[in-house]
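Running this now, will post back.
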Amino acid sequence: MFVNSRWPLLLPSFVLLSLASMVVLSVSVGPMAISFADSIKALLADWVNWQAPVSAQNAIVVSNIRLPRTLLCLSIGGILGLTGAVMQGVFRNPLADPGIIGVSSGAALGAGLGIVIFADLMVDLPDWLQLSTVSFFAFTFALAVCLLVYKLGTSSQGSSVVVMLLAGVAISAIAGAGMGMLTYIADDQSLRDLSLWQMGSMAGSNWISITISSITLVFLLVVFMSSAKALNILLLGDAEAVHLGIDIVRLKRRLIFCCAIGLGVAVSIAGMIGFIGLIIPHLVRLLVGPNHQRLLPLSAMLGALLLLLADIIARTVMAPSEVPVGIITALLGSPFFIILLLQQRSKLGI
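Update: finished.
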C-alpha cells in the first residue's frame, strides 16, 4: 500500500524511525528510572565518545545492561520475522510459523539436550564455544524437523497444509515429552536454563550472543534477498516454477537449511518465542503486498520492532519482576492466530 504509492520509502522510513524511538525507550525503562535525555546522552557517550554530562551509574546501566538487551531483541526479532516470511513462502502456507509446525520445539529440544546431557563437558569451555555448542544442537534439531515436516507434507501431488500442521503438532508433542524428561533429570542450574528457554527470555544477553545473532541475521538477509524473485515465482505453484526454470528442490532445500540455521541460533540464545514469525509477514503483506523483495526486509524490521516492544512490556508490566517475553508474544499472537483460522475457514466455506 505505502510502498506502491508515490512515496516508496515512506513505510521503511517510518519503521526505522519507530525502531530508533523504541531503542531509546528500551534503554530508558526499567526498575531504575532514567530519563530519555540521560539515556540519549549515555548512548552518545558510548557510541561517539561524546563527553556528555551523564552520571557514571546511568552510563553503566544503559551501556552494559539495557543496550545489549535491546540489540539482542533487534537481531532475534529480525531473524524470527524473516524466517517466518520465508517459511510461509516456501510452504505456500499462511500458517507456516516455525512454532506452529514444530520447528521451534525441535530446536528447543536440541538446545536442551546440549545443555543437560553435555553440560558437564561444556563447563571448561570458553563462553563463546559453549554457546556455539548449544546452537549446533538447536540447529541440527531445527533442520531435522524442517526436513521431516516438509517430507511428510509433500508428495508428487503437491503440498498438504493439513498434513504439515498435524506433523507439527505431533513433533511438538514429542519435543514436549523430551523436554519433560530433560527437566526431570536436570540439575538446578540446567533446570533454571531450561525453564527460561521454554518461556523465552532476553535476560541472558551479552556481546557474544549479539555478535552471533547479528551475523546470522545479515547472512540470512543476503541469502533470502538473493532468492526473493524465485520465491515470487514459487507463489505461482511448483509446476509453474519448474516451467519457468526454477530448480524448486534445490531452492527449497537451501531456504529450509538457512531457516534452520536462523531458528537454531534464535532458540539457543533466546528460547522459544512464538508467533512473531506468524504475525509479522501477514501484517507486511497487508501493507506492501506479497512481493518478497519488499516483504523480506520489512518483515525483519517489523519483527525486530515487535520483539523489542514485547520485551519492554515484559520488563515493565510487573516491575521490578520480569515476565518471560515468550508469554507476551503468545498473548499478542494467539488472538491473531484464531482470527487467521477463522478467515481460512471462511475461505473454505466451512
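The mean pLDDT is 79. More later if anyone needs it.
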